[in-house]
Specification:
- It comes from Streptococcus panodentis.
- InterPro entries: Acyl_CoA_acyltransferase (IPR016181), GNAT_dom (IPR000182), Ribosomal_N-acetyltransferase (IPR051908).
- This is GNAT family N-acetyltransferase.
- It holds the Pfam family Acetyltransf_3.
- This protein has one domain: Gcn5-related N-acetyltransferase (GNAT) (Aminopeptidase, 3-Layer(aba) Sandwich), CATH 3.40.630.30.
- Helix content is about 25%, strand content about 30%.
- The strands form 2 sheets. Strands 3-4-5-6-7-8-10-9 form an 8-stranded mixed β-sheet, sandwiched between helices.
- β6 and β7 form a beta hairpin.
- α3 runs antiparallel to α5.
- The longest helix has 17 residues.
Length: about 230
């Protein structure tokens, strides 16, 4: 541990450290998934995800509920596309070209190179699929290897154990719970904080890439080995 001239323990020095950049990706293509900057071309597909026929239980832990109609969706889409400090992306099935969900890079702290993946909104067809896992992998790879951020965050309602399990499966580490952090939908929320830092990424990347290999899936796309096996 480093010690300063007063005998006090201090953190590692970063002599060449500079502020990070804002995300600027338009498209990242993987084997199964494509990430694209959210645009009007995704409107019809994503209305099925955000619209009134979407499953009610998918909105329990999200800050908003489904839109009531097409006009409301168009207003929300405009809001998502133009939000300041938030970069929203569509998750597209490469095989069909259909957008099945969205997520965002947000709460961006350029000065400290900290960024969060949030507002994760998946259709039922996207949940628990290799496509969803690859989309998260592609975004994390971009954050660490192109933006060179030091810390990647994931936050969720402490009662949303499915979200926390998903984060830990991807390689995020639980750091603690912020009690009574948020009030939303008329109820209180404790928030779980998880993170992945740049030194965690090489091991997480190796696990994810090994799991995502085609030979780990049968002809119906079912995994042969779980990600936790690697």
């Amino acid at each position: 541990m480093r010690v300063n001239e007063y005998g006090q323990a201090v953190g590692e020095t970063l002599p060449d450290f500079t502020a990070g950049k804002f995300p600027n990706i338009e498209r990242i293509e993987g084997r199964y998934a494509v990430i694209e900057r959210l645009s009007k071309k995704h409107s019809a597909d994503l209305y099925e995800v955000y619209g009134p026929d979407s499953p009610a239980d998918m909105w329990t832990y999200l800050f908003k509920g489904p839109v009531a109609n097409q006009a409301e969706w168009e207003d929300l889409l405009d809001e998502l596309m133009t939000a300041q400090g938030r970069f929203c992306y569509a998750i597209v099935d490469k095989a069909t070209g259909k957008a099945l969900g969205t997520f965002s890079l947000m709460r961006i702290d350029r000065a400290n190179r900290v960024i969060e993946v949030g507002a994760v909104t998946y259709s039922p067809r996207l949940r628990q699929t290799r496509l969803a896992t690859e989309a998260q992998y592609l975004l994390a790879r971009y954050v660490f290897e192109e933006l060179h951020y030091r810390r990647y965050e994931w936050k969720c309602d402490a009662l949303n154990q499915a979200s926390r399990r998903a984060a830990e499966r991807l390689g995020f580490t639980y750091e603690g719970t912020f009690r009574q952090a948020v009030v939303y939908k008329g109820r209180t929320r404790d928030t779980d904080w998880l993170s992945m830092i740049d030194s965690d990424w090489p091991a997480a990347k190796k696990r994810l890439e090994t799991w995502l290999k085609p030979e780990n899936f049968d002809e119906k796309g079912r995994q042969k080995q779980a990600l936790s096996d690697f």
